[in-house]
Every structure is written in structure tokens, then in C-alpha cells.
Prior knowledge:
CATH architecture: 3-Layer(aba) Sandwich
Distance between the termini: 85 Å
CATH topology: Rossmann fold
Order of helices and strands: HEEEHHEHEHEHHHHEHEH
Strand content: 5-15%
Helix content: 25-40%
Structural class: alpha/beta
Number of strands: 8
Strand order of the largest sheet: 1-2-4-3-5-6-7-8
Shape: globular
Number of domains: 1
Number of helices: 11
Amino acid sequence: MDILMQLAIGILSVMITLVANAAAHLMPRQAGTAPQTSAAQATPASPASGVEYGSLPSPSLGKELKFAIQLPPSYQADTKRRYPVLYFLHGMNGNEREFEKRGVATAISKLREEGKIGEFIIVAPAGENSFYLNAKNGAQYEDAIIKDLIPYIEKTYRIIGTPAARSIQGLSMGGWGALYLAFKHPEMFSTVTAHCAALVPEMPRPTGGDRRSAFLAQLVGRIFGDPPDEEYFRSVNPVFVVEQNLAAIKKSGIKIYFDCGEQDRYGFQEPNKAFDEKLTKLGLAHEFHMFPGAHGWEYMISVADHSYSFLWAGFKTAAKPAGPARSRSGE
């Protein structure tokens, strides 16, 4: 008898839970709630950084595209205000959580508190090891960013949604991606900024066991085709795309900034210097710096005041307050 009673109680508990869940889904949502992702409600923002996480359906990838989004301090209170937006692309072996986990979000909040930049939204998508291009035999990440992510974000959140108030930035592999997407679609962005961009001017044919060869080995036979396709490599490489699309880039007026650490352990100092020289010869205005430091997140944070002041100054919004004068020291 006790066993039957316990069984009945258990079944009743399950039925109550099912009914409660069904009722919750049927109840209408109240107006003015935070934006919803396609799969589930975005995770609550971290009090320290203002970062929350979500995802959207990406037809280009055939799966969900995850992203982090940092909302400015006034976003919840000033419900009629719209904001500029920065799309941030992480480096190799990273994901959408690196932007907060590695301390960049906190560093940006500090720059805002110090009055070096104003309020804007930052979106960091998960890019896997894609270099943010449409791989010859793989994932279509260029389309995922341009056709899926940007339209979704700018419809879901209160974003100004004009090229003048849209910027793109990347670190390492993301530096390649940011420069490539900006040069391929210059009419979409006001500025592009990159830290220690993983620029590769020649088709990777790694030999030896050094760090640079190991890094380049991850590219061969994957996104550039198997075997690697030289023509395709040049068509998605910012080093060459800038020349191929030069007229449109100049016409757009997009502002360009990139820097690299003097002690970059992957040896990207020389390709970045060569890129600086190439842009100069092409007559393309840009800002380039070599700063003390290595490669990666710590380096980026150490020089973020330069790139973020640059991109903030590049935003064109009617309501934007004037920012402090920038220093161009650090060559």
C-alpha cells in the first residue's frame, strides 16, 4: 500500500510540473523585456562587464551561431536611445566567451569610465578557426557574419544600424578576418581595427617545428582547399583583397588602424610592417603602430586605448559627445 501511495504521489508531481511548464510557455511576454535569442533567453549580463550570451539560427552555417554582447551602462535605463556597434572577432582556438574571459570587456569598461571612449555595443561571435571567410571546402563564416549575424543583431538590439555607426575589429586570426571583411565590404563599416593580425602574404607551406610553422600548419589543407588553392587563397587574403577592391575602399572612406607587438612570438611583425608599406604605396590612408609586447590578449589590452579611441572617433552619430584629443605617440 505504501509503495502504491508513493507511486501515485510521484506521478502527480510529474503532472503538476508538466502543466506548469505548459502554462509558462502559453503566457504572453510583457512588453519591454530584454531581447530574446532564437534558441533561448540571453544569459543575464555580468554586473562587472555588462556581457551576456545568446545565439541565432545561421542559414549560412546550417547551425546556431553563438555570440557574446556587451551592452553599455545606459542601455536598460535609456530605452529610446540607439547605439553604435562594434563587431569583435576572436583569434584561433577561441570562442565567443574569450572577449569577457580574457579581460577585454573589463578593460573596455575602464576606458569608458576614464572618458576615453563613449557608449557603444560590442558583439563577439564564435568564429571557430575559420578566419571568418567562406572556406573553399567548409563553413561559410563570411556569410554568417555579413548575412546572418549583423542583420539579426541590429534588428534585435537598439543599434543605429548605419555604416557610419558600425565598426569591425579583430585579434590575430580575427585581425585577418576583420581586415578581410572590411576590405571586401567597405561600404558596411566606418572603421576597421586589428591587433597582431595573422597576416600571411604567401600560401602557407610550413616546414620545421617552430611556432610560426605550427601555426601555419593549421591552415594548410583546410580553409584554403585540399590541396591548397593559390587563386582562392589570394581572393580571401586581406593582403591582396585591399588591392583588388582598392577603388571601393577609397570611395567608402573607411578608416584603418592596425598594430603589432615588437616581440610577437609568431613572427607577425614583418608581415604587418610590409602591409603598412603596401597601404602607403597604394595611397590608402591608415594608422599603424609597433608597440612593445608579444602576441595575444594581454598585448591587445595593453594597447586597447589606441584602437578603441580610434574607432570611437570614427563613429558618426548625431548624439555622440565629443571625446578627448588622441595621442598618436607610440610609433
